[in-house]
């Protein structure tokens, strides 16, 4: 039975609707979930009513979800906020039911959602975790065009830097390590994952000179999990762990906060980076960029990250299907 990836429309005023037809170059079997009226003029699309419907070669298959207002590139309309939320929920339900192999989400704009609808979540990741029943998740950014790969997981995400020390706790780090290890095995096919842990402070605290978290609890937590069989390295100075020779020593890095993780990957692989939500009962990827209101409607948006996200979702789905078929 056909189980395509669902590509959600994202914020209509952004570059998402322009990227959808260009993503056909990925070669991935996917379906666009959104309002076809928001697609660029001249797009060759075909409406489907179920995910198993056959489509015309070269046409963008569209699972229709009508929105309240037309698309105005660069100008988000609060009237469309509820439609964006509904599309995410609808895609999640199809993935949770097994009808879709996974979802790839085009960018949303949190401010637009909060101004036009009741959206109490910091972003996509937290909303998807809520829809999945409140599961614990982690956000991974994974490269696709650099070797060795750069995969980073920020332990704390969308909070102020001043709040990081209080929120970066032993319980959180332990959970991030477990979620990351399980995902690397299941979705990336890594039999014995090697995970690097970045220190919170400059130079990983330098033995307490620049901070004490590394010596007071991070090192001990790492030692405890090593004794349980996890292959962990750290705490490491974040400024020396992302060049190529260092990356050869681990499969993913867990960082203390948002920019500590995202600056290196966006520097190394800006166009090819993919956002992956770990810990969900279904596959979710996303291009590693925003709505780009400044260039929306100009037809110049680079589809590379969306194509990479679709291909990664398909690869992950294939691995999960293979694991299921070979399970005793």
| Helix and strand composition category | alpha/beta
| Binned strand content | 15-25%
Work out the number of β strands: 12
Strand order of the largest sheet: 3-4-2-1-5-12-11-6-7-10-8-9
Domain tally: 2
- Report the top-level CATH class of the largest domain: Alpha Beta
Oligomer: single chain
CATH topology of the largest domain: Isopropylmalate Dehydrogenase
Separation of the first and last Cα atoms: 22 Å
Which SSEs are present, and which pair or pack?
Layout lengths: L4 E4 L7 H7 L7 E5 L10 E4 L11 E5 L16 H16 L5 E4 L4 H7 L7 H8 L6 E5 L8 E4 L9 H4 L2 H19 L5 E5 L14 H15 L3 E6 L7 H4 L4 E4 L2 H11 L5 E5 L5 E4 L16 H23 L2
For this entry, give a set of tags:
single chain, 328 residues, alpha/beta, Isopropylmalate Dehydrogenase, twelve-stranded mixed sheet, 10 helices, 12 strands, 17% strand, globular
């Amino acid at each position: 039975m056909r189980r395509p990836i669902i590509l959600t429309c994202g914020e209509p005023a952004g570059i998402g609707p322009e990227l959808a037809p260009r993503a056909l170059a990925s070669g991935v079997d996917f379906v666009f979930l959104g309002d076809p009226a928001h697609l660029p003029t001249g797009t060759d699309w075909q409406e489907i009513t179920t995910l198993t419907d056959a489509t015309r070669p070269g046409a963008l298959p569209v699972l229709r979800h009508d929105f309240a207002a037309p698309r105005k590139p660069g100008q988000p309309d609060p009237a469309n906020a509820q439609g964006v939320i509904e599309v995410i929920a609808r895609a999640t339900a199809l993935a949770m039911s097994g009808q879709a192999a996974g979802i790839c989400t085009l960018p949303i704009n949190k401010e637009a959602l909060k101004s036009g609808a009741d959206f109490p979540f910091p972003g996509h990741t937290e909303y998807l975790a809520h829809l999945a029943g409140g599961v614990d998740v982690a956000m991974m950014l994974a490269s696709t065009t650099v070797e060795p790969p750069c995969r980073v997981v920020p332990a704390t995400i969308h909070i102020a830097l001043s709040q990081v020390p209080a929120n970066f706790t032993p319980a959180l780090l332990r959970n991030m390590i477990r979620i990351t290890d399980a995902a690397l095995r299941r979705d990336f096919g890594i039999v014995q994952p090697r995970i690097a842990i970045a220190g919170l402070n400059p130079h990983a605290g330098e033995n307490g000179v620049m901070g004490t978290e590394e010596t007071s609890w991070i090192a001990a937590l790492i030692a405890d999990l090593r004794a349980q069989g996890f292959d962990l390295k750290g705490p490491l100075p974040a400024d020396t762990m992302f060049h190529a020779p260092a990356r050869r020593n681990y499969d993913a890095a867990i960082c203390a906060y948002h920019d500590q993780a995202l600056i290196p990957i966006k520097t190394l692989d800006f166009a090819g980076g993919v956002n992956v939500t770990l810990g969900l009962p279904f596959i979710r990827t996303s291009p590693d960029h925003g709505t780009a209101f400044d260039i929306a409607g100009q037809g110049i948006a680079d589809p590379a990250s969306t194509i990479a996200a679709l291909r990664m979702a398909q690869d992950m789905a294939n691995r999960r299907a293979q694991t299921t078929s070979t399970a005793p």
